[in-house]
Each structure stands twice: as structure tokens, then as C-alpha cells.
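# step 3/5: fold
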Amino acid sequence: MRAVVGLGNPGPEYAATRHNAGFRVADALVARWGFPPFRRGERARVSTGERDGQPVRVLKPTTMMNRSGAALASLRAEPAFVPATDLLIMVDDFNIPSGTFRLRPSGSAGGHNGLKSIEAALQSQDYARLRVGIGPLPADEPWEDFVLAPFSAAEDDQLEQLMPQILDAVDAWVGGATS
């Protein structure tokens, strides 16, 4: 089973924010794949289905971003689940330019509190991560304010135009591609 986890903050006040880019990708995946609507799970909203014969679970944690790792408890409880090959975390990143993304098989949290929480829960950095660019961070704006602000119209358009490429990359990862 593959698990694809989009990070963000729950609640309507955060829905359109840059910090919820991972949730937006998760929603787009479920729509593309024709998976059922998200339902309540253990510390996450969950949608499950099959993609090219591969069972897939898509999660959106119901915790705040900084506590996203708690949503992995049900996955960690499954003996056959190996984060290094079965887990993809999707997250915003202001160090990557808006309109771009990066998929890597492992790496560091890079200062991202959501990824730090994931790493603490797994006790490992060995899992795939897809970083959706929301940068650059303006020099005069605190990062907390920037990520919790809504996408500008131009940024929103960039993300929508990039979304098919992001979804193709996730499709490739689910199918076994490692980078």
C-alpha cells in the first residue's frame, strides 16, 4: 500500500492559504483518480482506492501543520508499511519559486515544521517528499505571515497550471518511480 499525505492546516480559515498547498494537491489527486470523498480517519481525512493495481491511501491530517506526524499512527501500525518506499509527503516550500515543484526520495525537513513533525513520528528522514513552490519569501515579511496568507491570483493561476505536472509526478511515484 502506498500512502500519499498532503500537509496543511484544517479549517475554512486556512483553505486558501499557501501553507495548504499539500491539501490542494491531495484534493486534486482524489479527483483525478476518482477516489471516494475524504472521510474521517485517525487524526486525518482519508480517501482510499487503487491506482494501476496499487492500493493507495490519500490523507490530509486533521491536526495543525506542526503536528502532522500524529496522522501517521495508523500507517506505522501496519507491519508491511515501509516509509522509505511507501510514503510520499506533499508540502509547501517558500524556498522554491512559485510555479515549480520538486520531488525527492528523501532529504531533510529544511526548516519546515510539518516535515519536522513527520520526521519525529517516523524517527527517520527516509521518505519521499514533494515540495510545492510558494516562494520567494518577501524580505520584509515574516515567514509565518507569508505562509498563512492566501495565494495571490497570479500564484493561484501558477499552481493550477502546474497541477497536471505535479499529479503526473505523483502518478509516477505511486507506480514505482523513485525520483
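# step 4/5: annotate
The chain has one domain: 2-174.
# step 5/5: archive (pending)
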